[in-house]
Amino acid sequence: MIAEKLAPLKIGSLVLANPLILAPLSGISNLPFRLLAKEQGCALVFTEMVSAEGLVRNRKAMGWLLKSSPEERPLGVQLFGSNPGSMAAAAKIVEEAGAAIVDLNMGCPVRKVVNGGSGAALLKDPRKAGEIMDAVRKALSIPLSVKIRTGWDEKNLNYLEIGRIAENCGVDALTLHGRTRRQGYSCKADWQAIAEAKSRLRIPVIGNGDLTSPEAIGHFFALTGADGGMIGRGALGNPWIFRQTLRFFQGALPEPPTLEEKEKTILRHFRMIVDSRGEENGVREFRKHLLWYTRGLRGSSEFRSQAAQWVKYSEVIRRVEEYFEKIRKVSFSS
Q1: Is 178 found in the same domain as 36?
Q2: For residue 155, what pLDDT is reported?
Q3: Position 179 in a domain
Q4: How does pLDDT run across 260-318, given as a tens digit for each residue?
Q5: What average pLDDT does this structure show over 43-71?
Q6: Residue 101, Cα to own-chain centre: how many angstroms?
Q7: Which DSSP string do the residues of 254-320 spell out, in sequence order?
Q8: Can you tell me the distance from the alpha carbon of 330 to that of 334, in angstroms, rounded to the nearest whole number?
Q9: Given phi > 0 = left and psi -120 to 50 = alpha, else beta, which region is 278?
Q10: pTM of whole model > 0.70?
Q11: How many whole angstroms separate alpha carbon 89 and alpha carbon 53?
Q12: Is-contact 90 79, C-beta < 8 A?
């Protein structure tokens, strides 16, 4: 039963090799991160969310968010905004730029986004949400999905209502994060809500929340019957989760990366970010990835405490190489 869930996933005219999708992660889902996930078996990657208003007003300034590569395709682009016209215009720009699918963010809980009437704020205004979905659907010829949460809070769980509006607007798939806006990321995701959405809606339902290991993903598919699984925080410092999950569903052990593979991936990821963003921005952006990559490794606490002080490309390379060499020496001697 579980293995069948890793059959190709169809979203409108888009057919994916498997149902494992990388979530659009703000400040994280740039081209280097997406490429690593894709290489490990992820079927569909998304950009971090892009402001529709910003894209329409100044496409050139927003261009770096849409920077892509043939190796990562098919590529999805997630848009956020509160104006149906701007969302439709931005979606058309994205389609012309080569996106394979557009996703509408109606679940982001961040205060700045919500205060602007975007993201999860749209859960409180189903009429406006429907107007946006309808306008974007009419502007696009490629598949369209929408990402929501279960509701604004526990007293207002309207994911089925929003899901039915999406169906009526011709949206091709619904991604449901199993938490309310009020819950943020603080509690266990409600997979039962995802199961209910799957049983009640006609369009494909993709679940999101707590997909942090191959075993958890296997349990998720078995419990919910969802058409796809969107992996977010489970991929931070762990692009191998896609490879491990595919192996798990094939009946093989989801082997972790070796120390050598982890070191090479860290250095390659860092070089790609610096190539893309320059030394100053690249070093600053990569610090958080260093924290995620080294979780659980021997001596990582001291390494992580020092990382915030590094500002030069050469220093980061040297420190990472020294750290892994130290781990190998300790492991060999013990």
Answers
A1: yes
A2: 95
A3: yes
A4: 999 999 999 999 999 988 999 999 999 999 999 999 899 888 898 898 899 999 999 99
A5: 87
A6: 14
A7: -PPPPHHHHHHHHHHHHHHHHHHH-HHHHHHHHHHHHHHHTTTSTTHHHHHHHHTT---HHHHHHHH
A8: 6
A9: left
A10: yes
A11: 9
A12: yes
* Per-residue CA distances from 198 to 37, 43, 126, 202 (Å): 26, 20, 20, 8
What pLDDT score does 4 carry? 47
Residue 254 lies inside a defined structural domain of this protein: no
Query: Quick check: 332 pLDDT over 60?
Result: no
The CATH number covering residue 312 comes to: 1.10.1200.80
Are 311 and 227 in a shared domain?
no
Structural domain count, the chain: 2
Do 276 and 230 lie in one domain? The reply is no
Residues 323, 231, single domain; the answer is no
Alpha carbons 198 and 206: distance in angstroms, whole number: 8
Q: Which of 249, 274, 298 is the last residue of a domain?
A: 249
Q: State the residue for tokens 């993201």.
A: 119
pLDDT tens, residue by residue, 183-214: 988 899 999 999 999 999 999 999 999 999 99
Query: Is the Cβ–Cβ distance between 104 and 146 less than 8 Å?
Result: yes
d(CA 83, CA 116): 10
Site of tokens 């921005």: 281
Cβ of 26: how many Cβ atoms within 10 Å?
13
Structure confidence at residue 253 (pLDDT): 84
The first and second tokens of residue 14, run together, are 């888009």
The residues carrying an active-site annotation are 108
Characterize the bridge pairing of strands 228-231 and 144-149. Answer: unpaired
